[in-house]
Here is the input.
Amino acid sequence: MLALLPLVAQQDLRQGAGGYGLLLGCFGFGAIVGAILMPRLRQHLTADGVVIAGTFVFAIATLILAFIHNVPMVLLALLAAGIAWTSMISSLNITTRENIFCRLATGHLLQVFGIPSPLHRDLGGRIIDVMQIVGREID
Here is the structure.
C-alpha cells in the first residue's frame, strides 16, 4: 500500500508533494495511535484476534485506496491502516515463538560465517531441534 501511495496521491487524488505528505503523515499518525491503543486492544482480544482484525481493517483500507478517490475518505482509511499495521506487527512480535526466533538467529549466524543459504536454513533448524530435545531431557 505504501509503495503505491505516491501514485494514488498524484493520479487518483490529484495531489502534489504536500498531499502525499499529508497522506503518509496520516498513516504515521495512525501507527502512533495504534501503539497507544494496543494495551486496550490486548484486554479485549487475543494476539491472534488482533492480527485477524488488523488484517481485515488493512484490507478494507487498501480497497478504499484502490476504488475511492475522495481525499477525506482516503485519509480516514490511512489512519485506520496505520492503527491496524502497528497492532498487527506488535501482536505478531508477541506471538512469535521462541524457537522461530532461534531458527532465524541461527540461520543469520551461519550465513555470517559463510555457510551457503540453502544449507544454513536446514542446518540451523536441525541445531535448534537438537537443542530443544536436549533441553527437554534436562528439564
Summary: DSSP finds six helices and no strands in the chain.
